[in-house]
Write a structure and sequence with these properties.
Blueprint (H helix, E strand, L loop, with lengths): L2 E11 L3 E3 L7 E5 L6 E7 L3 E8 L8 E8 L4 H6 L4 E5 L6 E11 L2 E11 L3 E5 L8 E3 L2 E2 L5 E2 L2 E3 L7 E11 L10 E7 L1
Antiparallel strand pairs: 1-15, 2-14, 3-10, 4-9, 4-11, 5-8, 5-14, 6-7, 6-9, 10-13, 11-12, 15-16
């Protein structure tokens, strides 16, 4: 019998994004905990469709949290006391799922703060070692001392923001996997 092996390389993510951290750098998962609130202030110079934040759960089941987006009001405390632009409760979060607050008519360009709060289970954040702008991360209303940035991005146009695969190829073995043909590329990218 023959064996076929299919191979694919990560291509990128759908949609035009504005990231608030340096992509492709070392990062650490930090668990939120039940009574903690984490957030990130960001400025964006053009209207955007969604704010997207990946959420690790350490493969647990039943994790939940509330994600909220505010327009910045000059200080963290004034901002979280203001009326949110958008808020959503996420339940049964898939490990490393990208949580999104969406506005089909787009949020205006401006200065914002997003937060995660009211956690249940083991939701968390990914923290990148390199920030594009420092001192914008908050933990329980205080600026985080750790240098870097919470991994978050804005999607500028309607999109899922999910990963797509690039350069799909296959190899074949006719001797039970002892030897293989050279990889044969069958596609430039798939969704």
């Amino acid at each position: 019998g023959s064996i076929d092996a299919w191979l694919a390389a990560e291509g990128g993510k759908h949609g035009k994004r504005v990231s608030f951290f340096e992509e492709d750098t070392a990062h650490t998962a930090i668990q939120l905990g039940k009574n903690n609130i984490v957030g990130q202030r960001f400025e964006i110079k053009e209207p955007f469709y969604a704010i997207v934040v990946p959420c690790p759960t350490w493969s647990s089941k039943g994790s939940a949290l509330t994600m909220t987006l505010y327009q910045w009001q000059g200080s963290y405390d004034a901002t979280v006391k203001s009326t949110p632009m958008s808020s959503k409760r996420f339940t049964n979060i898939v490990d490393n799922g990208e949580l999104m607050l969406v506005n089909d008519t787009k949020f205006a360009a401006g200065d914002y703060l997003w937060t995660f709060s009211n956690a249940e289970g083991t939701p968390g954040i990914w923290f990148s070692n390199i920030a594009l702008k420092e001192d914008n991360n908050y933990w329980n209303s205080e600026k985080m001392e750790q240098k870097g940035a919470i991994e978050a991005a804005c999607l500028l146009e309607p999109s899922t923001g999910i990963l797509f695969w690039d350069k799909v190829a296959y190899r074949r073995s006719t001797d039970g996997g002892k030897t293989w043909t050279a990889p044969e590329e069958i596609s430039e990218s798939i969704y």
